[in-house]
Amino acid sequence: MVSCTGWLLLLSGAAFCNDCHLRYLRYGRDDLKPQTPLPPYEENREYSHVAAIGWTRSSGKIDWACMGTLIWDNFVLTSAHCTMDESNTAPDVVRLGEANPAHMQQRKISHIARHPDFAPQTERNDIALLQLDKRIIVNQTVAPGCMWLAPETIFPKLQSLVRSKVDANNRIQGIPVISSVESAQTNGRKCVSSTSGDGELLCIETGESEPTKCLDAPAGNPLQVRLLHNYKTSPFVVGIRAGSRSATSCKPAGAYTRIGSYATWITQVLAERNATAKPVDFIPAVCALRFAHLRPRVDELLMERFDEIQTLGLQVEWRHTEDFRYIVRIVWPAEAAQAARNDCAGTLVDQSTVLTLAECVAPTPEGHKPTEVLHTGRYENASLPIKSITMHPGYVRGSQANNIAVIKLAKPDGAVPACVWPFDDSMLIMRIDLAGVGASGLIGDIGDAIDDQGGVFPSHHLRAVDYLPWANCTDELTKFNRTLRGASDEQHVCFRNEQWLVPGSCGLLPGGPLQRYIGRAGSALKYVYALSLAGRSCGHGIPAVALLLRPHVPWLRSVIMEGAPGIRPQATSDSVIVINPDLQRSDECSNGDGTVGICVPHEMCLSTPERLRKGERVTLCSVGSVVCCPWGDIARNAAVNPVRKELESCETRSREFREQRLRGRESNSTEFDNFPHLAEIGWPQSNGRIQFNCIGYLITTNTIVTSARCAEAKSWKPTVARIGMLNSENPSNYLLQPIRRVTVHEEYDDNTGANNLALVQLTAHIKPTVFFFPGCLFSNETHVPARQYGVHYDGASLQLDRIFPMYDGDCRERQPIGETLLQGHMCFLRGRAEAELVRTTRCYTPGDIMVWTRLTEEQIDDAEYLVAIYNHGVCREVDDVLTATRISAYYEWIVNNIK
């Protein structure tokens, strides 16, 4: 079966992987729009925490000889060397916001707290706090930075903030230009000080070799890292320059005081000086959120996506918890106790199947297994009982090879699943989204407004990461003392984002998806490519390793397809339908079994029904009803019916009008927005007026097709049809035509909706114009378009819905008890894009139609085809299954009953 062409094969269930996009097309996203570049900041926000420390001389001139970091609204962190100059004089003034001269703030120093064990000669304990005489005014140009107070420094790259405007005496004059120089830790290389090995100092390789460049780093300059959160970065000070440089002592490995070693002393000083700061205020997540609205944004993060769909490169994404219902938590019974893997997740790949790691569901030594999976939301959780668990037969505990399992749920779930990407490795060249869980307040884009709603509840979200070659990955993991037994580039893949995150922003979900939105059949749907296996901070900074799904697709198909509702096992009785759009009517063709024939309308081929019944291959020569028929099976004396000829030449006959409509719409956007094929069916009233109760579809110059329920809406027959009026801006651009005859299908059953079809014939053939002309009939009996539009009519106005047909097997599974899918019927669901709020909509009425537009690249209005007419259904919820009468099943009846 070839089903990746945007067509849905009737009478079958969905084949695993290849047609997932058709089965769940109704959830696809099509709201991508170009992003408007964000306006640049009016001020520089990069260095709002950087302070210049000065000495006021007797002449009134200030020597700005040191640097510091604002850590609270009235405290600056610096080195102890910066608390005295060569004459043992203390500094008396601090300046902030120097990168924005118009917004500088200057404060007097009211108190100096130097570390009591400071040793000037050895650079030990080279740290101090300066208290300001009054608080600074926090704004976009002046705001405290954060401190990295953890005992370890895990970042391989750091920024050393330096000044570039100094005089011959290494003193800053005027307003300096602050810049950043990327520096790398030496990882063991000795600093100049003999005390560098005690953990209080960081040795930083600056890469400087020219003595003149050494003048750019006075004492106290910050060593920092910018951590990502809320599409912004906050500065986290890791160290401060110990000692000071001179023009004659260019140190290739500079010493920085590691402030994480002094967390207790810093908080103790703040408390003693009656600062409002508390130890909790310096937790990374708390500090990052405090001034998030004032931090510089990372524009490329915002610009690469529209809403939740990845479009370019580097991004952090947030979505409402409900949009992540396809990521579930695996729940164990209480008896499993500590042996249970309670940190694992799973990924729904259809509404009854969850993929996860085998290690996440492997039985405990006592034989306990997971019993359910859980949707975790902010306000409520929902459990889904597990029916069965199948682990890969090649999985061995402790090894990462074949570390995959399939969970079957006891009943289908309503979440929008992620499709499995079963094809090539083309997604490796793209950035991809890694699912994680983190504090909600650190995820969303808060812009420049204070986020009073920011919370710390766990929230699922996606982090964009880049493919990392396997050799590079293993080298990186070795640096962090991580090894994964059994991992290989044949079954595993590695990702990383070099931008580090604020701790708490994202934790890896073992078994969670690595995914990407892929455009298929006109919509973007999410495809899962791999399952997260190991990593720290969701691949940011330290690489993340995931298990590829593609190598396991054959095994997954065998497990998932077995006994799936609505899916028949592959057997010789299943017909193989092949669409060859390059073949047209009268072309020579082959069915692939050695028989040579010609492309003819299916009703002219005597063997087609039997070939379908036997499960033999049938080639469709086009998307319509033309089949490849062996020469000897073409019906003799098959005279061309003029009605059939008119129906089959629909596109050709309407071409001139469609070209005119396109040109007319370019000059007048509303004049040609009417529906030229729609006809309103009218009944005379006692007051002499005409009441239009329902609609039909003009298919020839004298025939309208509608439902039998519409035709028999009243006890008397309709008498008039109004064509081309709907959605028309000009009331003169329509046709009012008397009805000559109404033909209801002779086997119509009002109770079941069987054969719910009728023809309304006009008293005379109309003369088509650009405002009203016949539409086309979709006559393919085996396939229907996967993406259609439903047209509501309430007697006054129209409403269009995206609608999506269902496989017959899926329809039967979801139909109400006691209801049967009849021959000639088609089930469909109304569109419900993944990110849309689910709302109920008004229901269809008899005669409402389902149409498909055949898209082309020509400069012409695309031809429209009538696919089905609404039959019946319950419309309480947007997920209710509705039923329509397929036009193709009654094509011959229509041809034979048009007089």
What does this structure look like?
The structure is a single chain. The protein has 899 residues and is mainly beta. Helices cover 11% and strands 33% of the residues. It contains 13 helices and 50 strands. The strands form 10 sheets. It has a 6-stranded antiparallel barrel. A 6-stranded antiparallel β-barrel has the order 9-10-11-14-13-12. It has a 6-stranded antiparallel barrel with strand order 25-26-27-31-30-29. A hairpin with a 2-residue loop joins β12 (222-229) and β13. The longest helix has 18 residues, at 650-667. The protein is elongated and about 115 Å long. The two termini are 38 Å apart. Mean pLDDT is 83; it is low at 1-5, 186-190, 192-197, 208-217, 245-250, 306-321 and 564-574. Keywords: Signal. Pfam families: Trypsin.
Distance between the termini: 38 Å
Count of alpha/pi helices: 13
Rg measurement, Å = 36 Å
Strand order of the largest sheet: 2-3-4-7-6-5
Major beta-sheet overview: 6 strands, antiparallel, barrel
Low-confidence stretches: 1-5, 186-190, 192-197, 208-217, 245-250, 306-321, 564-574
Helix content: 10-25%
What average pLDDT do the residues reach?
83
Structural class: mainly beta
**What is the 3D shape?**
elongated
Number of strands: 50
Beta-strand proportion: 25-35%
